[in-house]
Amino acid sequence: MEQDEEDEVHDIREQMFHNTVREHIIFMLLFLLLYLGSYALIMRFRRRDRADLYSNDEDEITVYRISLWLCTFSLAVAVGAALLLPISIASNEVLILYPNSYYVKWLNSSLIQGLWNYVFLFSNLALFVLLPFAYLFTESTGFSGHKKGIMARVYETFTVFSLVAFIVLSTTYVISVLRDPDRNIFQALFNVARYHLPFLYSCVSFLGVLLLLVCTPMGFVRLFGVVGQVLVKPNLLRDVNEEFHAFNIEEATVKRKLANVNLNIELRNMTTIDLTPAKLCSGLDDLYQIKNTDDGTTSESAKLFERLRELESERKVLEKQRSSSALQRNLVYPIAMLLLLILTGITVLLVVQNTLELLIGIKAVPLSTRQFTLGITSLSKLGPLGATLEVCIITYLGVTSAVGLYTMPFMRNVRPRRRKTSLTQLIFNCGLVLILSSALPLLARILGITNFDLLGDFGEIEWLGNFMIVLMYNVVFGTAATLCLFNKFTATVRRELCARLRALFNYSSHFESSIYQTAGNLNHLHSNHPLSAGGHHQQTQEQQNGQGPPTMAMTCIENHITVPTAVSSQQ
């Protein structure tokens, strides 16, 4: 009997060991996949010149590679954080559909819980340790007076990083004492891993959620423009071939004019100047005349060059439209626009529904207070279809937030460009993407996109339990998204109406001013006419008595006659 119990305990421990090994193997494979994808993405954008990679200095090569590896690790963690909710929702539905399948036995609550814990840990590590270290490492030169080398730069980086970490942790400690005076301050002082870092991450996640509040509604609008630039629009009532040939002819004409202007400038510069006194400029007028001629030629050349660039870009667009198929033009573009409109509308409706449920009291704040078990019940009333829709909306929110962030004006200088992004810009962009992706699960849970609880330390962020913050966030997000969409789809109509009203107002004011100006001219002509000199006093007396005929100005205003007609009638 005792032997059987020992065998059973041994089997349980062995099963737990195998489950742990299997989970860590899955984590390692998933991380390698994300790391390779992030490395390929960074290689696409990083700059490949000597400004970033000094081929003759081994220390610079080592520093560059280490910083690049840290950036790649951080970007992989960011992508993993963005995929947390979609993977968890899909895993729950798969376990509900196939509860007894042999091929999904590895998918369980322990695996998903461990994935959330690792992402939270690596997010803190990348955001507060790896990315600052990578930036300081690339900017370091070594302490003065020490031997130059890689170790001198490592010592300088660790020293500066320690000072910055001390300042940040001290600030966090002061804020925590002011926020919660009843907490044991000496216990919290040395509890960095369990108190300071989660509190810092809570502050950063709150900033990320606020950034998403600005970027996501803007991304709803900007994504329509991005899709319109990538896909080929339908050619309604247009002859693309005729326009293409017309642009080719105009482009050739502009090139010929530009060549002639450049040739004239070169000939003028090559002309020998005669410095005899008789042929020198006689005064400042000649100098100004020569200067104005040169400026006119230069401005004409600049205008032609600008027009040539516009023609080349328009010709490329027309060439793309010519090479595209009719199916791509007439089917793909309308379907893409319709999908974007449907996803945006569903998102706004879900936000409105979540706001009403919060006000009524049906739904609680998204702070996690219980342990979630995977595969028990579906999180959506529509079952697998609703779960698929939730995954699509969460992915759509991530894409729109990225588009909205990188199309903002203040991101113009740090926006990554293909093969032109420096290492410092890569570090900054990886930090931004990590902040946004870490806040994406919080955004989806706050807006009520899904009912999946935030697992691990994500669900213990304190400000998620504040009802007013959650409610106001829903109200502001729904209002901003609605206003952005309304402005997007009514901007053209409003501009046209304003232009028509402005033109009508200008026309009416111009018409009235022309009438009064014509009347004044007629009165002036009538007063200076020779036939009206003798009877001027009598006409004035009759007009005062109300018996005489009206003046020409009054007749013109009443009958809207023109000047030549009035003059001929007087004569």
Automatic annotation (TrEMBL):
Pfam families: LMBR1. GO terms for molecular function: transmembrane signaling receptor activity. Residues 530-552 are annotated as: Disordered. Keywords: Coiled coil, Membrane, Receptor, Transmembrane, Transmembrane helix. Residues 534-548 have a biased composition (Low complexity). The chain crosses the membrane at residues 25-45, 66-89, 115-137, 158-179, 199-224, 331-352, 385-406, 426-447, 467-486. The keyword Cell membrane does not apply. One of its GO terms (cellular component) is plasma membrane. InterPro entries: LIMR, LMBR1-like_membr_prot. Residues 301-328 form a coiled coil. The keyword Membrane applies. GO terms for biological process: signal transduction. Belongs to the LIMR family. This is Putative lipocalin-interacting membrane receptor limr.
